[in-house]
Structures are given as C-alpha cells and as structure tokens.
Amino acid sequence: MTHPSRAEQELEAMDLVFKALAHASRRHILVVLHARGGRMTAGDIAKRFACSWPTTTRHLRKLEEAGLVTTAKSGRENSYLLNQDRLTAVAGGWLAWFQQPALVNPKTPSETA
Amino acid sequence: MTHPSRAEQELEAMDLVFKALAHASRRHILVVLHARGGRMTAGDIAKRFACSWPTTTRHLRKLEEAGLVTTAKSGRENSYLLNQDRLTAVAGGWLAWFQQPALVNPKTPSETA
DNA sequence: CTTATACTTAGCGAGTTGGCTAATTTTAAA
DNA sequence: TTTAAAATTAGCCAACTCGCTAAGTATAAG
C-alpha cells in the first residue's frame, strides 16, 4: 500500500493522544495551560514544573505531536496553545463508547467463538 | 510520613488508569469487553488478539492494577469483568476539567510570574 | 559587535515496556 | 491415574521513556 487509510490515520492519532496523556507531567501541563486561558510561553510552563527545561520541552513536543497543543513563535518567545477541541474529541470520543449499551447479548445461548 | 494521603492515592490511581489506556491493545480489550457485555474469560480475550496469550495476560494484569477490570475465577476458567464506572469516573473526570472555564484571566495586565 | 535571554537539540544512562518462548500451576476430562 | 485444557509465571531481549547536563540556535538588548 502507498499510504495509510483514513481509519489507520485516526487510530494512529488516537494512540499518540493516549500516549501523550500517559505521563502526569503532560497531563499537568494541559491542565495548567487550560487554567491560564489556553496560551503560555515555554518559559512560563517550564518555570511551573520541577523538571529541567529541556525535559519540559520534550513533553511539549509529545503534546504537539499528538495535536494537543500548537506552537506560535514570536520574537524569541515560543507560545504553546491548547487544542482543547482535539483533546475532548479524541479522548472523550473514545470514552463515550462506554456510555453506549453493549453491541451483543452478554451471554447468548449459542456461545460460538 | 507513614502513609500516602487520600489525594496522593487518587493521583497514583489516575496515573495507573492513564498508563493502562496508553496501549492500543489494552484500549481494545476494554472495548471488546464492553461490547460483549462486560464479562469474558481470559481465553476468549486472548483468542481475539494477535499477540500471544502471555502477552495478553500481562495487559490484563495492568488493567487490573489500574482497577479497570476485576477477575473472577471459576474452575479452570478466569473471567475478567469490566469496571466501567471506574473508567468513566477517572478518565472522564479528568477530561471534564476542560469543559470548565479557565481559572484565571487569560492575559492579565499585571503578568507577574 | 558583544552579551544576555529564550528556547531547542544532542546525547547519556537507568529504568520500564511489550513482544516472545518455555516452564509451571491448577482444574477438568478420559 | 494419566492426559488435556486454561491460564499464569519466569525470564530473555530490543526498543522506548524520561530524567539529566552540555551545547547549539535565534532573537533582543546594550
């Protein structure tokens, strides 16, 4: 195949989102970013965390790769913008599955495969 | 300190849940489990996945440690039960944060620290 | 031009993850 | 009692994660 299908891209995208949410520091960054109105410079974010600035940069990179934040450079400052819609759409979308009733009968009499 | 505080326990619990959700196979197990009514044997789960049975067992162990499934042994079969409430409470609870308005003014004139 | 500021990139190292096969355990069937 | 089935545990290994420090880049200030 020459290119991944749309469905494969979405699965890959979802995987990046959940992997991004797997670390407490990254979840924390998103919360702080939201609390501060959805926009902060890299320095303001780094200042608020115990880990070193390069470590924070790498966390931000993963959030960016997952599409959960975008960057906007201006002068020598680099701002990060929360992509709230994507967070709630992807993670919330997956989670919403579990509000739905089950697809099949829990215990069918003909329990084939 | 002799024991972790309640808040620390909850943070630790949330971390286990999000780490459990970080792998596509584990998310898939939860979805299949829900679709089949919330209860399946280890064998039925293992059959539906490409990876080996021991690998699936380990995924199930992580889901169990996160409190997302519980086990019920009966004879030589081991059933896994979906803990749907915990999944939606913990993951959904964190996500719900982002439906709330921001805590502080996005761009206060006195941009201190 | 030189220096400081704001960040990122490079690269190291300990620890974790996730795949596998082989071996073991437990219970049911013959 | 022997054999088969269901599942887990043990242990190996390559790959990834995430912390760090040091070095580099780009822009603004002096």
From TrEMBL, chains A, B:
Organism: Acanthopleuribacter pedis
Entry protein name: Helix-turn-helix transcriptional regulator
A Pfam family matched in the record: HTH_20
Xref: PANTHER family: TRANSCRIPTIONAL REGULATOR, ARSR FAMILY (PTHR33154), TRANSCRIPTIONAL REPRESSOR SDPR (PTHR33154:SF33)
Superkingdom per UniProt: Bacteria
Keywords of the record: DNA-binding, Transcription, Transcription regulation
Segments forming domain HTH arsR-type: 6-102
InterPro entries: ArsR-like_HTH (IPR011991), HTH_ArsR_DNA-bd_dom (IPR001845), HTH_MetalResp_TranReg (IPR051081), WH-like_DNA-bd_sf (IPR036388), WH_DNA-bd_sf (IPR036390)
Entry GO MF terms: DNA binding; DNA-binding transcription factor activity
